[in-house]
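FAQ: What does a ligand-bound record look like?

Like this one, built around zinc ion:
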Amino acid sequence: MPTRRDSSSSRKTRKSATASAHDTAHDRHSDRALIRELFVERLPLYSFADALRLTRTTQAEVDAAIAAGGIATGTFGGQLVIPWDDVAKLALDRWTPRMINGALGSTDRLSVIPLLNRVQQVEVFLPVYQIRLLHYLAEIDRGQYRARLSASDVLERHLLDLASAVNADELELAVPGFRAALHYPYFIPREDDWFTAFCWYCGRVSDVPGRQVCTDCHGRHEPRPHLGEDGIPELDQEE
Ligand SMILES: [Zn+2]
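The answer part, i.e. the structure of the complex:
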């Protein structure tokens, strides 16, 4: 009996050692590792080989993007290179902003993603047919993305279309930084005061230290404390 137990435990050790070596190799090439390499350790320029590897893109796809004017190339040291901004654009065909923020994690995304481009959870109330629509589009509209889309991803893409269609000059006045946020990704950081707790909704400095929603927007957009019978907020008080 002791012999048998020993042999089984040593088999187990060998097996787990192999598994962990495999896991490490797998982790290095995981989508999460690629996203982190591109965003956390970003460099101004990438070779074609690195751009393809980091964004899981084929040469044919990059050639098509260059031909369509979607991404730019340059030469550096006699080698054809792609700027970080354009490699990151290729990455956004593979992973949505939500997926990229998720891969970066709660700490790194604060230093890596500009304030107005960070993904933030908000609560919205929609008619059921629109909720079903979001689910349906998430199912059929996956595109080139590497993971299943969520309702948030679908909504983000439609709001990106909307943001591209509005008058950017007008919006820039109402939402300072709107234009830069719409043109993200870019390599050189723009003005971005992430030390101050700005309200996610209105962009004013939050009047509650440590909370990134001001009191007015908290009552208006996140009315959990005064939910009505079906979890739907009561009508705002008349002013
Ligand atoms: Zn506010």
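Follow-up question: can I read anything off the structure? Yes, for example: The two ends are 82 Å apart (CA to CA).
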